Amino acid sequence: MPNDTPQTPAQTPEGDRIAKVLSRAGVASRREAERMIELGQVAVNGKIITSPALNVGPRDRITVDGEPIGQPEPARLWLYYKPEGLVTSNSDEKGRDTIFDHLPEDLPRVMSIGRLDLNSEGLLLLTNDGGLKRKLELPSTGWLRKYRVRVKGNPTEPDLEPLRRGITVEGEKFQPMIVVLDRIQGANAWLTIGLREGKNREIRRAMFAINLTVNRLIRVSYGPFRLGEMVPGDVEEVKGRVLRDQLGQRELPEDAVAPAPRAKGPRPANPRPSTARPSGDRPAPSTDARPTGPRIVKPGAKPSPKPGARAAATPDAKPAASRGKFAPKSGSKPGEKSGGRAFASAAIDAPASRSTKPPSKSWAKAAPKPGGKPNGSRNGPTAGAGKPSARPAKPANPRPKRP
């Protein structure tokens, strides 16, 4: 018999699923939130719910264990050094202490990213965002987790090879591990192991399969985050900028990129008169110093009487000295390529004092040709004492004596 009753189209309920809202509020992950709902720990508008198939909106009042949940906060991340002997869970059926029993009181409601077993210690990530927790736990994220492992026994490299190829334990396939034998210490050995997945007691079970017993296990890193100098019980929050960078978010706020130009500011502010130039400019004295360099090195050439040649070379000597392999060494020989033609200003001060002696001897030999004794023989050594401004007067005024 046909049903003549008109059917109304199904309406999509407004809002988000209750488990998603709890996860965004930092109460728990979606899966844990669903479990809490089934246990009757969640109430909406004063009524306890037992099914996660419920959408809620901004006006609904949600409580967990009688306490209202807060508004969704920005995702935050903390590094926690889990001590040995604590359970990584919200509660323990055996009554053992959990990590949440020992966290600082001012820490908001957080959840762990992954877990460490009871007898393991080291780096554990905590977050207030369920979406971030799920993302970092996925194997597709590909973050490497490194452990320092002490085993009883003296394994050899062939003994560890099955772990590097991938081992099957009790029908469960483990992915290849990064295994480095660090050192043998008495009856024990220290290893460094890297994993990209986190199965239950994976390292301990894999070691037991090759006849090694783990007696200490420390997680030292989780992706880009390191344990560093933290001690058991320490909690450190990751800065928002670092978190965005590591999660691949390219967009940074203005305050995150503002310090970049300030980092380069102090360099030109240093009290170095010779380098008082705009940042990034190459020294321009190479064009001015090239014509003056050959005049000083060659004794037969007539030096320029312009006093500005010396003044122009003075501010250029130190910038050339700060250019690594192009910098002239003190006491370098005139024939060495310390300054070169590209940095001829650097050769003005160093070779000048050594190149003045040959000109004084050549003038002394050239003076008898006209037949007289030049006065420059007395002033020659004085002119060669490293003062280029006094040298141009010698070849210009020979003062020969006629017979």
From TrEMBL:
InterPro entries: PsdUridine_s_RsuA/RluB/E/F_cat, PsdUridine_synth_cat_dom_sf, PsdUridine_synth_RsuA/RluA, PsdUridine_synth_RsuA/RluB/E/F, PsdUridine_synth_RsuA/RluB_CS, RsuA_PseudoU_synthase, S4_RNA-bd, S4_RNA-bd_sf. The keyword RNA-binding applies. GO terms for molecular function: RNA binding; rRNA pseudouridine synthase activity. Residues 256-267, 298-321, 340-355, 387-396 have a biased composition (Low complexity). It comes from the Bacteria. Residues 244-403 are annotated as: Disordered. Its EC number is 5.4.99.-. Residues 244-253 have a biased composition (Basic and acidic residues). Keywords: Isomerase, RNA-binding. Residues 16-74 form the RNA-binding S4 domain. One of its GO terms (biological process) is enzyme-directed rRNA pseudouridine synthesis. SUPFAM superfamilies: Alpha-L RNA-binding motif, Pseudouridine synthase. PROSITE patterns: PSI_RSU, S4. It catalyses: a uridine in RNA = a pseudouridine in RNA. This is Pseudouridine synthase. The lineage of its organism: Bacteria, Pseudomonadati, Pseudomonadota, Alphaproteobacteria, Rhodobacterales.
